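Hello Y.,

Per our agreement to keep a running log of every chain we model this quarter, I'm adding this entry. I've kept the format consistent with earlier entries: sequence first, then predicted structure.
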Amino acid sequence: MRIVLLRAINVGGGGKLPMAELRELVTGMGATDVATYIASGNLICTPPGDPSNPEEFDRALEQAIEKRFGFFRDVISRSHDEVVAALTAHPYEVTDPRFSYVTFLAAEPTAEAIEKARTFATGDDKWTIIGQDMHIRYANGAGAPQMKDASIGRALGVPGTARNLNTVRKLIDLTT
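Predicted structure for the entry above:
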């Protein structure tokens, strides 16, 4: 079973993708044990194909979404154990789980990209990279960031999708 995360779904003005239609789409692609959690692109399923190559399903899902809905969205997946490891590795004190995030990245950023991203001011917000995950703690919540998270993300040079620790914990619970 995999936790499949879609970037920028049902936020802002674009990327409208009803979760019932997403479940139908991935079931049609051969996935089993399909479920979604809240309407922001959190999918749980057992993808078809080689379990040692989950990126194959991720790329196929990106293409299927673009074909059916007319927009591209990055798809990043992790195993249950990988998400547990990311939560366990979270390096910041959690005063409010809504202020602490894990951004699941498509790949590990290069040292040069991380160095470039470190040039952006963060105020009291904090971030660090651990493997393929970016850990964030917003001082005043994600709705009022002090850091330029979009600029930092572009500097890292790899797509990612963030989930607050409440959502991360729920996805772990749903795959236990």
